[in-house]
Design goal:
This protein is α/β, with parallel strands linked by helices and 255 residues long. 45% of the residues lie in helices and 12% in strands. The chain binds S-adenosylmethionine (SAM). The site of S-adenosylmethionine has 20 residues, from α1 and α4.
Length: 255
């Protein structure tokens, strides 16, 4: 049994619980990630976005990739993606850095009309979506602080449930979801939606926690996550329950 007893909660109740957890943590979310993971989440996110291989040249001859970041929260994945999409963005000088998530050697500007191709569908290059307006609001504010107006015109923020996305079929080349899928009530439904909005040949990329394959390390991790993380949540974010949820949701998600 668990603190929240997730196995027993009806799906509408889980949705409400997840909403209140993220509403409660929205303004502490970024600092809490650094504290709980000792900064490691930045490395996981860098690695994940590198694996998308967006820039330079997503795929030879393809138009500028349209990217959807679902459960995008405060924008950590989306901002790294935006840095990689920079060469495809009209009016955006390559190499103008934003700091976080930036990598060297990838500032090549495509001169082949990729920006014009980007107009072929009614979504901008980068869409950040999240079910929680508070998380999204923090994300939008962070984006406004770090990106130029040219880059911001290539981005949109949309409040949406991963289980019922408000986008047309075949709209995106890439769908990313980082530390989001385990929070979704009906995972199959979210996966069907991902498939629907992706173009044929598009890519689904999920970043999640898993199990530690080495038993003593798993034990140490369990101890850390059940004792230290809720305590950090209590002291810093003043919400022990939200971080207890986090730990339990990780434990219950498939490896
Ligand atoms: N992707 C961001 C990151 O890596 O920092 C945020 C991850 S955060 C742990 C999980 C996010 O999932 C929250 O912002 C929450 O609001 C969102 N979320 C939960 N259920 C959702 C759903 N059904 N549809 C879309 N987003 C959801």
């Amino acid at each position: 049994d668990t603190h929240f007893g997730f196995q027993q909660v009806p799906s509408e109740k889980k949705k409400g619980m997840v909403k209140s957890v993220f509403t409660s943590v929205a303004h502490n979310y970024d600092v809490m990630n650094d504290l709980m993971s000792a900064g490691m989440h930045r490395i996981w996110k860098d690695e994940f976005v590198d694996m998308l291989r967006i820039s330079p040249g997503f795929e030879a001859g393809s138009p500028a990739p349209k990217v959807l970041d679902v459960a995008g929260g405060t924008g950590d994945i989306a901002f790294r993606v935006a840095d990689q999409l920079r060469p495809y963005m009209a009016g955006s000088p390559a190499g103008k850095g934003t700091g976080e998530g930036e990598r060297g050697g990838e500032g090549e500007v495509r001169q082949d009309g990729a920006a014009a191709d980007a107009m072929d569908s009614n979504v901008p290059l980068l869409t950040v979506s999240d079910i929680n307006p508070d998380m999204l609001e923090v994300g939008e504010q962070r984006a406004a602080d770090r990106f130029s107006p040219e880059i911001l015109t290539n981005m949109q923020f949309v409040q949406a449930d991963a289980e019922a996305l408000p986008f047309e079929d075949n709209s995106f080349h890439l769908y990313t979801i980082a530390f989001g899928l385990r929070n979704v009530t009906d995972v199959d439904k979210a996966l069907r939606e991902a498939h629907r909005v992706l173009k044929p040949g598009g890519r689904f990329m999920c970043l999640e926690f898993s199990r530690v394959p080495i038993e003593p390390l798993q034990k140490a991790y369990d101890w850390y996550s059940f004792n230290v993380i809720p305590t950090i949540g209590q002291v810093v974010a003043k919400d022990r329950d939200a971080y207890q949820y986090l730990v339990e949701s990780i434990r219950m998600f498939p490896g």
